[in-house]
Automatic annotation (TrEMBL), chains A, B:
Residues 1-36 have a biased composition (Basic and acidic residues). It is an enzyme of class 3 (hydrolase). One of its GO terms (cellular component) is nucleus. Decapping scavenger enzyme that catalyzes the cleavage of a residual cap structure following the degradation of mRNAs by the 3'->5' exosome-mediated mRNA decay pathway. Homodimer. Associates with components of the exosome multienzyme ribonuclease complex, such as EXOSC3 and EXOSC4. Interacts with NDOR1. Pfam families: DcpS (PF05652), DcpS_C (PF11969). Substrate binds at residues 168, 178, 198, 200, 261-272. It is found in: Cytoplasm; Nucleus. It catalyses: a 5'-end (N(7)-methyl 5'-triphosphoguanosine)-ribonucleoside in mRNA + H2O = N(7)-methyl-GMP + a 5'-end diphospho-ribonucleoside in mRNA + 2 H(+). GO terms for biological process: deadenylation-dependent decapping of nuclear-transcribed mRNA; mRNA processing; RNA splicing. The keyword Nucleus applies. This is m7GpppX diphosphatase.
């Protein structure tokens, strides 16, 4: 989900050359006021010409812009700053309020604050290369509706043709790689699995706990292949995965969100364990399926996932999206 | 997902008494500029005394504050607004930049913008009861498993006993409040509904589009009450809601995530329409149910939601969680 997070993108972009000559503006004083001592620059952005918005987030209040600064390509990132408790008194007394709506005890306003209490963090990458620009670009997603027939005629042939390599998964299952990262293993060939931390999790705190259970069975590509015969496998992963997480991280089942992705990132059955309350990327209803729901659905209808119309987002650059478009299904 | 999000907390608080006397400020003009015609209020917050910060989010740039407005308890919610593409030129030319750091091709600044280009959305709940204050307080969540029997023995009695007021919903359906916010209405008493922007959405950009469809039928508390007889109602909301959004906001169905919450914030049937790719609070798999899935499930099993075990998160201070604990179900 949060592919466009300012922080993640910013983080992942530090590909510039080393900087032997680091200069630094004078640090602002505590309350962010102008006091005449600060490094007020000539406004390098006053002549900035926007070429395009690469991405933005209404939730995080940021925007990534490609444009030109004095004939050089640049990426400018704006992000509003968090609201600080120590500025509230001044904010309330020094601002202008405009009423928008009143209903019962609820009213909403637009508040116009003194600029020094409401700054925007601004990052400039200049000169920016083609690589920077592509990196900051949002890949839009589209919701696709996949019927049973669509799966057979469009999705399955695409998966087979691409023959995405899952050699790295087999390396894990065979202990040829990442063996020391394994948190728990049930070696049973039918219902067994390997549980290990997802790469996204730094394992420094449980607040953003993220583990993956990878089935030993190699013939299940995704949710679409599941039938009632796989219920014991799913139940085993669910039950033993929860127990292993309680034991290792002291996190009870009531704090876990356990789910499968459809479409998955790779076509070998795996299950996601993330902490409830952590906005894990990909935990949205449009892509995630709670394992508890999957088990119930298969118990009451063995062919549930073979026959059901499924919905999922595909990014604009996903080859599968082109296939759906070619088939007139979008 | 984001338990501390301004948005969900705001959503989940609609428990106020009826409002016979609904006043309303003049709607702001399109580009958010001052033009002398707007309803500039006396600053009701200039004398606001903060008692405590109930919660805040550095990621979403919001803060929930408990305090006093003229001796009355109030909750004030501040949230910075998304950065709008159409204001960028004026933002760059009209702002002051302060250099913070320069390293190689990367530099960061603090940008001080003209106040009308950098507003803070402000919501006031006044007078606020102890219940409001508790509700806005940051709280941990727990995943609850609710069987058919749990619903009958624990959840339903709790809902009935609490008799949460939905008078504000009836005000909307009867045009006693928010009538000018209505985007679309189908007045049919059986399958009709009112579509209007959610409070969380400032309607300035479609990136975080969030609308709510409220059914005219008054006897459906939640997902649990739905049977196959409600399929025409759900299909009508889904279809006409998508059409209205395409017409008004030029956003096609492939960019929409349409879902119900279980548990809902209020027990009158309503459907959420949010933009795909916008991490809307409450769109996580643990609380959201795609309307397309709900329709399919009811079509193949009329009693699906009456009989199924459902999973949902409850906050630590939710009375329903205590009931599940007392019953030994957590």
């Amino acid at each position: 989900m949060a592919d466009t997070s300012a922080k993640r993108l910013l983080d992942s972009d530090k590909t510039g050359e080393p900087a032997p000559d680091v200069k630094r503006g004078k640090t602002d004083n505590e309350n962010g006021r102008e006091d005449g001592n600060e490094s007020v620059q000539e406004n390098v952005l006053s002549g900035f010409k926007t070429s395009s918005v690469l991405s933005d987030s209404a939730r995080e209040k940021n925007i990534f812009i490609h444009g030109k600064v004095a004939d050089q390509d640049a990426v400018v990132i704006l992000e509003k700053t968090p609201i600080r408790e120590d500025s509230l008194a001044e904010l309330f007394s020094g601002s202008t309020l405009k009423l928008e709506m009143k209903n019962d005890i609820y009213s909403t306003y637009r508040l116009q604050a003194p600029p020094h209490l409401n700054e925007i963090k601004t990052t400039v990458v200049c000169p920016a290369t083609e690589k920077h620009i592509k990196k900051y670009q949002r890949k839009e997603s589209f919701l696709v509706e996949e019927t049973e027939e669509d799966y057979k005629n469009i999705t399955l042939p695409h998966i087979v043709k691409q023959s995405f390599s899952v050699q790295w998964v087999y390396n894990i299952l065979e202990k040829k790689a990442e063996a020391e990262r394994i948190v728990y293993e049930d070696p049973d060939p039918d219902v067994g699995f390997v549980l290990l931390p997802d790469f996204k999790w730094d394992q420094k705190q449980v607040d953003d706990l993220y583990l993956i259970a990878i089935a030993h069975q190699r013939d299940i590509k995704s949710l679409r292949d599941l039938t009632s015969e796989h219920v014991p496998l799913l139940q085993n992963i669910f039950q033993k995965g929860k127990e292993a997480i309680l034991q290792r991280y002291n996190l009870p089942a009531s704090k876990l969100r356990v789910y499968l992705h459809y479409q998955p990132s790779y076509y070998h059955l795996h299950v996601h364990f993330t902490k409830l309350g952590y906005d894990a990327p990909g935990c949205g209803v449009e892509r995630a399926h709670l394992i508890a729901d999957v088990i119930q659905n298969l118990q009451s209808n063995p062919q549930y996932y073979k026959t059901r119309t499924l919905y999922f987002p595909l990014r604009a650059d996903d080859g599968l999206l082109s296939k759906f478009k070619e088939a007139g299904r979008l």
